[in-house]
């Protein structure tokens, strides 16, 4: 049985506190491994990942591993209830000697022998349950909150700090820590009976931009987030001069008001990655697009669509990506230039969302190592770059390479930018009657943002792929 990547039975972000409250869901930790063995997907545990230089990456085997993980999530949810979905959230648990360890790091890394794999699943589920029980205890310890505004503000700030510290410590600040942190805060708002239904917006506005996946938060960032959310909930903001500008790194701790201003250390900001978008725009200007390749014309295609084939084998929803490609084909048939409006229509289909606007904040990739800064003029600049994608004076391979890199490095959407770049590339080529029958060498390669030679090399690779299409 194949489970779609976006199956609602896999989602953690939709879980309410009622879904996960340990008091509402009886659980016997002593039988977990037996239950995991009993409900494990039919067909057995997939083969572990082994790199073979002679064979290359086996997409089918990798898909089987991720599908097995998804099927296991569905099975555990049916057995225990929706709360069990969180077993893949990578919340660490304590070993016998007290160390914290994450027992499941995703299907590709954690699939080993059948018995070890099932034991890892059971351990991850136990650790997630323990995390929920710790949250329930923390909630109880901080309730009821005082009603006097200033006392309430202090209590809210202490509670939020404890919650953030608990999630960060248990997760190791991996890719899941920030979403789980936001979720835990929303759960507490529910338990504390904070009025209003839009807790998502309340938390996102208070902590948005302060925390990132894969980046461990500094104490000052935790303090600022706690103060911001407490102020929104109570209307009380402490006098700015009453707080030190930094917070000890051995947090959680209470911020001291006893330090005079002259003794306070300067605020410490996390190291900021260089702006990859600025670098790309400089490279874009220096690359010799007109001379990197010769003009290559269509039509050129076979029965095989290499871009569609590649996208259909990734872990995201195949149906939605292929439906988006149908929209691209319709726009090609209609004619006209590449525009952001067209990209957004395709992206709405890819992400199954009602709107996909241009981002309004900085964006990051590569686990926070690559940053794409935001400025108010970016949408206009990006639109101008898209307009150049159909300039017939520049050889087709160069135009296709340039627009592909434009989308990757402008990073216009909150999610799915690699897919959007592939669709833009497809559109530019298809307008000239070219459909690549091989696209994996192009789409699997990481193209350095700072190297004009690499950008020109991408154009030459596309030219080679076009020439290799049987005519």
UniProtKB/TrEMBL annotation:
Superkingdom: Bacteria
Domain Fido: 338-467
Annotated transmembrane regions: none
One Pfam family, short name: Fic
InterPro entries recorded: Fido, Fido-like_dom_sf
PROSITE patterns recorded: FIDO (PS51459)
Protein's name according to its UniProt entry: Fic family protein
The organism of origin for this protein: Actinoplanes flavus
